[in-house]
Structure prediction request, 499 residues.
Amino acid sequence: MATTPPPEPPEPAADAPHRATADALLTLVGGPDNIASATHCMTRLRLVLHDRARVRDAEVRSHPAVLGVVEDGDAYQIVLGPGRAARVTRALDALLARAPGAPAPAVTAEDLAARGATLRADRARRNATRGKLLLRRVAAVFVPLIPALIGCGMIAGLNGLLVNAGLLPGLTPVLGALASAFMALLAVFVGLNTAREFGGTPVIGGAVAAVVVYPGVDAISVLGQPLVPGQGGVLGALGAALLATVIEKWCRRWVPEALDVIVTPTLTLLLTGLVTVYALMYPAGRAARAIGVGADWLLVHTGVFAGLVLGGLFLPLVMLGLHQALIPLHTTLIEQQGYTVLLPVLAMAGAGQVGAALAVFVRLRGNRTIRATIRSALPAGVLGVGEPLIYGVSLPLGRPFVTACAGGAAGGAVVGLFSMLGTKVGSTAIGPSGWALFPLVQGNRGFGTTLAVYTGGLVAGYAVGFLATYFFGLTRSALAELNADPAPEARSGREPAPV
Prediction:
């Protein structure tokens, strides 16, 4: 006798809007059978699609939860904002897992495959280069580490405050251990992720990277110089895991299947380990030191100019998704010096974006659609997540994106000026910026002074971004048109909001 399957548990009320968004987007991108993979970063749902032509692009852009759409190589990226991106992706994964078999397409599978292959090849030719793709893959190694880096940085900041205040002396050693343990083994996690990203066995990548931080390497000398545990850091771990992946793939091509489980991992670990110890750790250590010395020299000797350039150009990097390529530099600086001096300068770009958005909000009093977008995206922008404002406001309008960059340049110049005067401002973690970076700032002049300099840079970014956008960000004709039209879909890429 057939039994009735038990009903599914009720969906939490807080998850219902994200489930509804995922359900709507699933239909708009062509259904479950059109999705090859679905992942997310801090603000974007990243879809790899079989057939781009099946996407109802205008309807995706006009969805109330969507702040913008970015196409990057094979990825169709839907900007949803911080927090929402992860929740919608989880809801989408659940829908895909429960999706029935794909319905019969209107055309043959061969037609769909040919059409999708043509579109992907065309996008690859237009939007990708080998260097760009390599940078993205390297960035993909470090992006999964960001939550742990943020958490450890926050705990380290709290521990520092307690130690300086002389409070809870019994707890501070525990907090110190929690903050430092991950950083001590960071190279292992980099090795795991590198092997996974480049097609090797993750645990083998982690095993060869562990050699870099193993305390016993201090008994080994290379060119007459003893090795130091941790020498080479994440760069050495990255190189070791890449080499292990290459050797592992080479072994699997010629080792007989019956011996593969024994011979391949043994040869991979042996050959990669020898190369890591005798050829990688020393030069990687020199390279890591050069990054630290170079970053310090840049800000100490050319601080204003460096801050102007870095702060002004960071928004375009975010727009292109290339800002993640800087993560290995930040990670190396944190591992080496305890903080990265580059992140606070780059964070000024978000301040310029916030100032520009506020100016647009003031100038477009008659445009309910753009003002509603700004109201929803501004809290994330203040906390340092600039993509909702970029794709929802400044980039579609054109000029405000340029004036936002001017605000970021001004804030970067202020932080760079104080670096030239001897006050370094760094961050103990990567990921947060804006106000979210306040608990993580650290420098060489004490927390109060460091915090004041960082705040001064933010204020400069807000002010210049606002003033530049207010006076130069919108032409007279644009002001007249946008204030007269409550739903400027031609400029913002969004459909009219329901009245």
Summary: The first strand starts at residue 35 and ends at 40. Confidence is low (pLDDT under 50) at residues 1-9, 102-121, 486-499. The chain has three domains: 13-128, 142-291, 338-492.
